[in-house]
Specification:
By secondary structure, this protein is an all-beta fold. Helix content is 1%, strand content 46%. The protein is built from 1 helix and 41 strands.
Length: 586
């Protein structure tokens, strides 16, 4: 969390987005809320979450969703809250420019079966995958997010307690009372759903949350890089005094805690002290020694993790588990997907990893075949850590789903056009040349001098009958000729200079100078005027082969004065001599 208070005050009114599907977009499970466009500054997107992706249309209190922000234009945050209620000051996901950051959210469902997503500043693309749901009247009570801890000075909590307490130093532990605050009852609470945000750490570090009064586990809940802001959701078992304890490993860091909901004692969710059940790095333990030092997960690799009977999870009767998944030391940017073993791998992602960084995210996952969950890594290689936080019984108050995409604001970018091949430029030097041997057929251009003469030939006898077409240019200017595949030869003198393969210019000229011009390339169609001298000659042509049949229209001006010509879009070319001067568009 950053200090956004001054900016929030500037957002006097909120723009509510009305999504419509795009024909060129990344898909969602049902085609709705696909390609709706980024969420702008101060804007809110109301997302329908019921009746989609396996969530029932009625009877739903809250949904478990994975929210990913990507392609942001500014450092900002997202707040997820029930549609139709006041927007809370809490945040669910913080991100920097250009980053791709996910976070799991338990979101209370609001008016119309929707949840609202607010973006503070800049614009950002947002992706939402649903992981499961809690029924109305079930054992989980969702809340509108409320801030219960704020270490930074001058920023409030929901009740003024635990505000401005200062950063947490290296190796230090602080206690956060959650019972009786922010909508959580004072008693009868087994666990709370929290969003924990670390901000401004002086060094790379991690935070661990556990029930106050019990031993601190080796597991971590939130890994953060020096100077950054990173959130993660945690389901934390409540300990002595209705509190949870928070430990900081290294350096000092501010942190924030927002409460999202609670589970009652004896309810359908059983929280456990966090326990490590997968550790791919060598030499580091798991809770029972199994699945320790398994090695990095490679590109396209899948790791299956059995959970029954491990880390406080019973051997039978388990429907879903709450886990914290961490990717560390990734060789390239990638993502991890977590899903029930034996089911088809979904297109959704749970965690986006950055090269060389340590990135956590929480997931609630139904158990699959053999009481296992599966993890997939998209690209490169990465170490993976899994800590278990609790479990739901089969047929209990939580219905886990195979992850399904409900929102993807991104439009598919248009395909990158294939660049035109670089033309092969052939240079012709004065003389008599054989077409097909010395000269490839095509259009050629020369910056000719006065006296340039060229001719296209049907043979080489030297007789006039061999000349298909010719031209003599009595001024300095561009000359253009089309050499046909049926021509036998092409001849020109030194006054023409070198002819080269015609290459269209980058942009047309605003005026027409003496010489030959390609319409639509050298010049644009339109009506042009000039103050001509006596003897001005011009012609509009359908080709540059030099024949009289190529002439669409022409004129020889016998006396000086204004001359006007209309060049049509269908014209191939235009020629005018130096007596015409320079033409300008009317």
């Amino acid at each position: 969390m950053r200090r956004w208070a001054a900016v929030v005050a500037m957002v006097a009114s909120v723009l509510v987005m009305t999504p419509s599907a795009s024909s060129a977009a990344f898909p969602t499970i049902d085609g709705l809320f696909s390609g709706v466009g980024s969420i702008g500054p101060g804007a809110v997107l109301d997302l329908t979450v019921v009746g989609r992706g396996g969530v029932p249309a009625v009877g739903v209190d809250a949904v478990v969703i994975n929210v990913t922000a990507t392609g942001s234009t500014s450092e900002s945050f997202l707040t997820v809250y029930p549609t139709g209620t006041g927007r809370p000051t809490a945040s669910n996901l913080n991100f920097r420019v250009g980053q791709t950051n996910p976070n799991m959210v338990i979101a209370k469902v609001g008016a119309g079966g929707r949840t609202s997503i607010f973006n503070l500043v800049g614009s950002v693309e947002v992706i939402v995958d649903v992981l499961g749901w809690f029924p109305t009247g079930g054992s989980f009570t969702s809340l509108s997010p409320a801030r219960v801890f704020e270490s930074r000075p001058g920023l409030p909590t929901v009740d003024g307690q635990f505000a401005g307490v200062g950063p947490l130093g290296p190796g230090q532990t602080t206690t956060v009372v959650v019972a009786g605050r922010g909508g959580v009852p004072a008693s009868g609470v087994d666990a709370v759903a929290l969003n924990v945000t670390a901000t401004g750490p002086t060094t790379d570090t991690y935070l661990t949350l556990w029930p106050t009064g019990s031993d601190r586990p080796t597991a971590s809940n939130l890994n953060v890089v020096a100077g950054s802001t990173r959130p993660n959701m945690v389901i934390a078992k409540v300990g002595l005094g209705g509190s949870v304890s928070v430990f900081n490993f290294s350096g000092s860091t501010d942190f924030i805690v927002d409460v999202l909901g609670w589970f009652p004692t004896g309810g359908s969710f059983t929280s456990v002290t966090p326990a490590r059940v997968l550790e791919s790095r060598s030499g580091l333990p798991t809770v029972d020694g199994q699945f320790s030092g398994t090695g990095e997960l490679g590109a396209g690799g899948v790791q299956q993790v059995p959970l029954l009977g491990r880390g406080g999870i019973p051997a039978t009767g388990v429907g879903a588990v709450a886990v914290n998944v961490t990717a560390t030391g990734a060789s390239v940017e990638s993502y991890l997907t977590v899903w029930p073993t034996g089911a088809n791998r979904p297109t959704a992602s749970n965690l986006n990893s950055a090269t060389g960084q340590t990135v956590p995210n929480m997931a609630i996952v139904p158990l699959g075949a053999g009481g296992q969950i599966s993890l997939f890594n998209f690209a490169g290689s990465t170490d993976v850590i899994v800590d278990v936080l609790g479990w739901f019984p089969a047929g209990g108050g939580f219905s886990g789903l195979t992850p399904a995409r409900l929102l993807d604001t991104r439009a598919v970018p248009p395909p990158t056009p294939t660049p035109a091949p670089t033309p092969v430029v052939v240079t012709l030097r004065p003389g008599t040349l054989v077409v097909g041997s010395n000269v490839p057929p095509g259009r050629y251009v020369a910056n000719a001098r006065r006296g340039c003469y060229w001719e296209r030939l049907r043979g080489f006898s030297g007789s006039l009958s061999d000349v298909l077409a010719n031209d003599f240019q009595g001024f300095n200017g561009r000359a253009i000729v089309d050499i046909l595949p049926t021509d036998a030869g092409f001849e020109f003198d030194a006054d023409c200079g070198n002819f080269q393969t015609y290459v269209p210019p980058a942009a047309p000229s605003a005026a027409i100078a003496p010489g030959a011009h390609v319409v639509g390339a050298h010049i644009t169609p339109g009506t042009y005027v000039t103050n001509a001298s006596s003897g001005c000659y011009w012609e509009r042509v359908r080709s540059f082969d030099g024949t009289t049949s190529a002439i669409i229209a022409n004129d020889f001006v016998g006396s000086a004065g204004q001359v006007i010509v209309a060049i049509a879009p269908s014209d191939v070319g235009f020629f005018a001599d130096d007596d015409c001067g320079t033409w300008t568009r009317l």
